[in-house]
Model the fold of this input.
Amino acid sequence: MPDEIQIIIVSLDGEQYGLIVDDVVGQQQIVIKNLGSIYKAVEGVSGATILGDGSVALIIDLQQIVQLFELPLSA
Done:
């Protein structure tokens, strides 16, 4: 286990969430491509982009990710 973890804080509908990530690469302007009908059912992914080096990066659907993993608060 690493000594440090990296968390990206995001906001959705006035709530804040923390996403634990392996690495923060940077910030880029991208064009999001539709994944097509084959990958439409993949939960948590809304599209993809081709990076400058030719590799493909998936674009997460934050709202779906929150719905999939949000734990209810205990009373």
User: Anything to note?
Assistant: Helices lie at 62-69.
